[in-house]
């Protein structure tokens, strides 16, 4: 049987050229033709195992969707002029996709459990590429926001699917390292988009970015369809539709309230109405979860420190990390007059430090535990916010690079540790839901951070452009302090003596 047969539930053996992926994690990953994945001789030489080859495939597709969320952040002012729009409107082409990645993630996790994560991953990647192609033909600000949002809604399927493969391929004590690479992809790819975005827009124009990106995503979908093994399916999966709708509605209205509060007036009827509807919707979400047969977020998690605290800490760190990621390029361009190309070369310090630290951070966590890693990582982000908040005219480039690099190091250390702690603290049959919920609140923190920081900048603009951005970065410093305090209450699940026995 061909591995891409649409009706397959398990792939059949193919003689000598096939391998069986052992039962690991929650479910069984079935048969995958080895000759379709990578020649055995090459695999032996580079030390590439079966599960790591599968991980590379799923993370490659996740990277193509995640990196484009922020590819325009350095060039919003240029694009706004081209589309006769405003930076404030086009900011939603960044915050909207980030929110979509989180809100629809849990639903994709459940759909993957029902129909198989391979199908969800491939179709999500395909439609993300399709809407990316339409973005190139956007004729005004709202249409660009719409196409970017639809592309993100489809591309969000790759996140839970990648997490599902990790949880099924790797045992709990092995997950720190692959989660480091997953964390790098989900957090580092958007930052890398900033690095590439400025030079690309200056060189080929913003439309060409999506004209090039769309076929790459479509090709990635075809490759994933050919190479990925199918996951087992569950016939009794139930959807918490009410929970998804109430949470998404409440979160969107909350962000809209914060984003538009200053320009529309905090006491305007629209803002007050949005705020009240947001509170009501989030309250309704809690009520729905109390009665749901298969809740989006089991409420007993709220009373389990090693589940709820890592999720909240990740959200607080992402508030500072992604909020700073949005406002720092704008501060350098609008406040200090840096060119997009100059900004791109500076910002590369963040993904570079992250890419180096995330794998090393996994080894660090295996030695000191998740609690110390969480505290050290949050402290790194705190220092980054302080350094970046002191940037002004005459500040040398190396200080900017230091601040950006510290944020990458902080998230690189904390991200894998917090993700592994959540995965190891829930039951095997709810690990997918936990991963999706962690992605949801992490993205919520990112979107809230960028929205709050932009709002603080707008409200304090009378103090000077650069100073107003410094005030915005202080909010990220505040959330980092809270993250450090919460991380001190974690209980590590990895201990040196346990690891020694595992290695033995």
Provide a compact summary of the structure.
The chain has 504 residues and is an all-alpha fold. Helices cover 74% and strands 1% of the residues. The protein has two domains: 15-239 and 294-503, MFS general substrate transporter like domains (Growth Hormone, Chain: A, Up-down Bundle), CATH 1.20.1250.20; 240-293, no CATH class.
**How far apart, in Å, are the first and last alpha carbons?**
41 Å
Q: At the first level of CATH, what is the class of the largest domain?
A: Mainly Alpha
**Oligomerization state:** single chain
Please mark out the parts with pLDDT under 50 across 5 or more consecutive residues, or reply none: 1-47, 494-504
According to CATH, the homologous superfamily of the largest domain is MFS general substrate transporter like domains
**How many extended strands?**
2
The count of helical stretches stands at 22
Strand-and-helix sequence, N→C?
A: EEHHHHHHHHHHHHHHHHHHHHHH
CATH fold call of the largest domain: Growth Hormone, Chain: A
List the helices and strands and how they pair.
Blueprint: E1 18-20, E2 31-33, H1 34-37, H2 40-46, H3 50-66, H4 76-82, H5 87-90, H6 92-103, H7 105-115, H8 117-135, H9 141-155, H10 158-169, H11 176-204, H12 206-227, H13 241-264, H14 269-291, H15 305-335, H16 340-347, H17 349-368, H18 370-389, H19 397-425, H20 431-459, H21 465-487, H22 496-503
Antiparallel strand pairs: 1-2
